[in-house]
Amino acid sequence: MNSKMPRSLQTDPHPGFMGRRELKKRDKELETRGVAALDFSRDKTPKKYVAVLLRGLLIFLGAYGTIWGLASSFDLAYNPVKVFVWLLLMSVFSASIYYNRVTFYVGYALMFIIFFVFSVMMYSYINSGFQAFMNAVNEHYVDYFSLPALRVSDEIISDRSLTVPIACIFMGWVYCIMLNVTISSYMNPALTFLITFLPLQIAFYIDIVPPYLCMAMLIMCYASVLVLSRSGNYALPYRYKKYETFVRRRRKKGSDDSYILSAKGMISVFAVSLILSLVFFVVSGALFGESYSTKYVSNRLKNRTDDFVEVIVMNGITSLFNRYEARGGLAHGRLGGVGSVAPDYETDLVITYVPVSTDIVYLRAFVGDLYSVDRFLEEKDPEYAPIEEPFHAEAGVLSMEIENLDADSEYYYLPYHSFYAYGDRDGTSYVEYIPSGLPGRITGDDIGMYDYTLYAFQHYINVPESLIPVLDETVRKADMIGEDRTAQGMLYSCRQLANYFEENYRYSLQPGMTPMGRDVVGYFLTSQDRGYCMHYASSATLLLRYIGIPARYCEGYIIKPSDLAEGELVREDEDGTKHVKVEISDANAHAWVEVYLPGYGWTPYEMTPPSFDEEESETMNGLFGILSNLFSAASRNSTEEKEGSASSEGGVAGSLFSGIYGSLEYLIKPVGYSVLGVMLIIFLISVTRRLRPLLHAMNMKRKGRFDEALLVSYRTYTGKLLRKKIISSTNSDSTELARQIDKTFPGAGAPMIGEIVRKAAFSGSGITDEEYRSALESMNRILKLKAGTAGN
Amino acid sequence: MTEFFKNLIYAVSYIMMMAAVLVIAIFYRQPLASVLFVFLIILPFISLYAGKYGSNKISITASAPAGHVEEGDEFRIRLHLKNSSPVPLLRCTLKYTYFNSYRPDDEDFSITLAGESFASETFNLSFRTSMPGVFTFSADTLLISDPLHFHTFRKKADIHVMIPVMPKTVEIPDIALSRFEGEPFDDIVSESGELTRDIRQLREYRAGDRLKDIHWKASAVTGELVVKEYERSVDLMYLLLPEIRKGAEAGALRRYYSLGKKMTGAGMGFRTAVYNPQDRTFSYFNVSDETGLGESLYEIMRMEAAEADVYEMYRAQNPGSYGVIRICEESIIST
User: Fold this and answer.
1) What are the backbone angles phi and psi of residue B97, rounded to the nearest 5°?
2) Beta-carbon neighbour count of residue B211 at 10 Å?
């Protein structure tokens, strides 16, 4: 015998049961403590195969529930019986892999070989079935979002009755493998929940509810896994190689042993979970199924995520990666890739000027000339610098002081029509300008204007050829071709286009990104149908150019009438001229189109429709913003958001309470009813517990069995006294209790009650009606007394 | 980690799960998810009620092998857990300690069992000993967690098991045992030997019995005359003094047991002086057969091991006594 072997290993009748380290510890314990704990066992050996079967069932519930839920939600004919049988077999097979160590290694190897062979042999079917599923999902999403385009994947084999069941079996098999790890190996409720519940979000997202029975299956799976994991009685020996039924965890001082497998307990948990899930099935289906469906109530957060989902549905997942952050301010002609705009509302410019009207004042900075797929480029070395461009003027010269706090320092910010600028671009600059005043006559250099007009008509009417079909169709729809090419005719076209935008598109600071590779203007005009100033200005530029009107894309800041109203009066000249200082933030950054009107020069034109959700942008920042948007009601269909917002004053959000209630009605009602139900049950239990002895006593009294009637009443009486802490226990002898009661209520008749009760309980001859009555009266009297009160 | 923190972790994880479902319910404005949320609200109450109800219906008892076990033996403590409620898989944790009387320590152990619904289960805890003494197994508290592990209910277990672990016998060389000489234990003298004050047994009165031997109290209770029969000093010629010193108990016990067996086997009775280190006194036991030997051994093992020199203590208390047979860890010294 090996002398180095621990003593216990040499003498242990089951040396393979515990490892060397464990045996060494035991030896040490024997040496130091004189006694050591060996293996622990249970009289009835748990049936491992039952545990394996139950795990198989749990895996099946999770896998089949998910596959069933997905297939049914998207109306796929998946041959339920065939899939049911196959998944059941696979689940049990997967679970049985954990029966012991041999089955583990052999089983996994075997399973992966079969899986590989199946995948290769059935590749076309699986692929086609999966594409069929994706097509079905796309169809539902396109319907839900009312999208104009539908991406269709190729199904190599078009017979869905063949491909869909095979794909379902394949996907179910993958689920069995994953759930086998989360259930058989770890019994982890969180992972099980994530794996099975997340895929169903594809259906939930567009208001499709999987069948309630399928949900009940999943609930049963979750509840069983949750309770089993908490009870700690689910392990199979493979997880704890050294132990059969107990696992030992050593501590610094002492150890913890846990019983790890209870097949019978698993069956009980299974049964309880089945009851729970059936209750869920009944409650969900019968009580809260359709009646609380709030189809048109959504929230702003979901509407925002809808934007991203729409892009993915139409252009695939890669379309999400073409983006950059827009924090307000100038974009330098960059157009695509902005999912949302989140201004910081910090002051960018402080402007001191003399307002001559309450119209919007445009401060031009960036001027886009050439258009490519996703941006406007600035003209390099233009023939005319911005301040040299001729313009129509009929008013006097004014001066504007611009202090740049946080705006882009690359530009001067030039009001229309500036002719001289000086000072620091990143500090304080000064601009001399003559405010435009339409309509009017040319009073400046007519010859210069004429030359420039030719120049403008040559340089600012180019559009990309690839966009011509889209532009052509939009021009036709907007009916924007004027009768002549005069300034009035051009203005007519502008007006028609602005009206068209207002009627068919909506303003949004969260329009979603332009998919990668798509033309921004083309995507906006055909698919996106919402956007902010950048989208409208860029599209209008190209549309106007397309019909022969010179147009440019401009970025800069605007001074709105509301800014002017909040402005500070700096000084007032003797002639009554008022100098006002206004602060404008990056929220005032703007993009607009400027059109060249013969005889008037470059004139800004506002194409951006009015905003209905500008307040929204203020609440989109940070966790609070997300929560706020989560709780705020909105129309479920994002295309109806505008309507919903417009009618919100008298509707869902009429008041704070009705707003919250209307928004969360679907949640408040079930919770409210459930709480009421629970309270009702508690009330009924309480009433029954009080009434039952009373009725029993009355029944006994009616039958003339006064002794039994008295004993029932006596039990209630001692229970009440115990709650009042007048007696310490109800289990004592009636004489002893009478003594305790008499201490608190001297002379109230407690000893007499004790005697009669004793007689009723032990004499065998029973008690008389009179004795019963007198005892009962005394008991009632004592219960009405306050502590320390004499009974006399 | 205390039960409270374990429960707290489970409660926090459950609350996080509830929060996730609530967010899903609000995000989708989905009645189905809100029903699930309602379920998650109600479940903890059901779980707590079930735990409370189940804990009232659970009981645990223990049984141990009758008599004694031999040093080096394996033996089992059997725990009987009964759950008479329908609540399945209640997690029951029994906090217990076990030790040899000569190696008491503060190590605490726990065993977690499954309280299966409407079932009585027996779990076996196996132990092995490596030294003589009194094996003690005690458990005061049974902790019962509700199915979702939010709260742990405490229940009194009141399990206390003591099993004497008899020493192994060792080879005792033939040595000349010295006879005890000292103060007589009694002044009664008879032909068949010196009578002592140690009562061997009580028996009915026979003609010729001395009046002073009548046990009046026992006679009054039984209604018949009962007399005391005393040990005779002829059986008490030897006085064994087991010196159970701290850290060196096993050898002395083995030698005492082996010598005792040898002597009783040869029909030689003896007295055993048992030292109690707590009050520093000696008590005496007469041993004439194996049963008496076992009883004396049990008395020895119930006492703590001594820090001081036992023989010196004996000498100090009995200066006129000689011929004590000292039984030490390594040897037997016949003085």
Assistant:
1) -130, 150
2) 8
Residue A253 forms part of a structural domain: yes
Q: Which of B324, B319, B274 is nearest to B298 (CA)?
A: B274
Provide the domain limits for residue A720. Answer: 704-784
Cα separation, A567 vs A562, in Å, equals: 9
Contact check, Cβ <8 Å, A667/B26: yes
Q: Judge if A505 and A356 occupy the same domain.
A: yes
Interface test with A, best of B101, B125, B130 (most A CBs within 10 A): B130
User: Which B residues, 77 through 96, put their C-beta within 8 Å of a C-beta on chain A?
Assistant: 88-91
User: Between chains, do B122 and A43 touch, taking CB under 8 Å as contact?
Assistant: yes
Residue A400 β-bridge partners: A431
Nearest chain A residue to B116 by CA: give it: A265
Task: Count the Cβ atoms, other than its own, within 10 Å of residue A436.
Answer: 21
Same domain, A56 and A18: no
Residue in chain A nearest B108 by alpha carbon: A254
Q: CA of B107 to nearest chain A CA: how many angstroms apart?
A: 5
Query: Is A673 part of a structural domain of the chain?
Result: no
Assigned domain for A712 exists:
yes
Interchain CB distance below 8 Å, B126 and A219 = no
Instruction: List the structure tokens of A749.
Output: 């008749």
Domain with CATH 2.60.40.10 in chain B: 1-166
- For B170, the token pair is 């060792």
Q: What span, in angstroms and rounded, lies between the C-alpha atoms of B333 and A540?
A: 119
Q: What total of structural domains would you count in chain A? A: 4
Record: contact A34-B100, CB cut-off 8 A: yes
Q: Rounded to a whole number, what is the distance in Å from the CA of B200 to chain A's nearest CA?
A: 35
Please tell me whether the interface predicted TM-score (ipTM) of this complex is above 0.95.
Answer: no
Question: Is residue B124 classed as helix, strand or coil in its secondary structure?
Answer: strand
d(CA A309, CA A320): 9
pLDDT in tens, chain B (335 residues): 678 888 999 999 999 989 988 888 888 877 778 778 888 888 898 999 999 999 999 999 999 988 889 998 899 999 999 999 999 889 999 999 999 999 888 788 999 998 989 999 899 999 999 999 999 999 989 999 999 999 999 998 889 999 999 999 888 888 888 877 766 554 433 444 556 667 778 888 877 777 888 888 888 888 888 888 776 555 557 889 999 988 888 999 999 999 999 988 888 888 899 999 988 999 888 888 888 899 999 999 989 898 888 999 998 888 877 888 999 888 888 77
Q: Which CATH superfamily is domain B1-166 in?
A: Immunoglobulins (2.60.40.10)
What percent of chain A is helix, strand and coil (3-state, nearest 5)? 55, 15, 35
Indicate whether A384 belongs to any domain: yes
